[in-house]
Design brief:
Largest sheet: none
Shape: elongated
Radius of gyration: 15 Å
Order of helices and strands: HHHHHH
């Protein structure tokens, strides 16, 4: 059973986001595909938010971080790892609070890769995972979330 639109079947236990065991794991690509794009149950329970407020936060996230992957890529291409890490770290925190589990897991891995100073090739793999997860979240918000009026 796969999670659909952030909802899991009642009989299925949620998968835990992958966690880096050590800095040595920082250069390993993370498969986030089994995690939900967004876990609305978790997001609501973490923040105890009304549905309208949560949807407003998700729309604000989309508005603010729609270009985050491109900005990170531009910083990496310019050799500006610290700037790229700052963005990844920020997205990590916000996505975790919103229950955006794929983006959170990918951002955790990317941030850990920066901290461990892994190779450019490893950063590129971690970045690709992050960019894909972010694109999936932004598409989910675009298709499923209506900005409250």
């Amino acid at each position: 059973n796969a999670w659909i639109a952030g909802v899991r079947p009642q009989d299925e236990k949620p998968k835990e986001a992958p966690v880096m065991d050590s800095v040595a794991d920082a250069d390993k690509a993370v498969d986030v595909s089994e995690l939900p794009v967004i876990n609305l149950e978790k997001a609501s329970s973490i923040s105890r938010l009304s549905k309208d407020f949560l949807e407003e936060l998700l729309c604000d996230f989309k508005d603010r971080y729609d270009g985050a992957a491109v900005t990170i890529r531009n910083h990496l291409d310019a050799g500006e790892r610290a700037e790229a890490q700052t963005i990844a770290h920020t997205v990590k925190g916000i996505s975790g609070s919103l229950g955006a589990e794929q983006v959170f897991a990918a951002a955790v891995a990317l941030d850990a890769g920066f901290k461990a100073e892994v190779s450019e090739e490893a950063i590129d793999q971690l970045y690709d995972s992050f960019a894909d997860a972010l694109a999936a979240l932004l598409a989910y918000i675009e298709q499923n979330v209506v900005r409250p009026e």
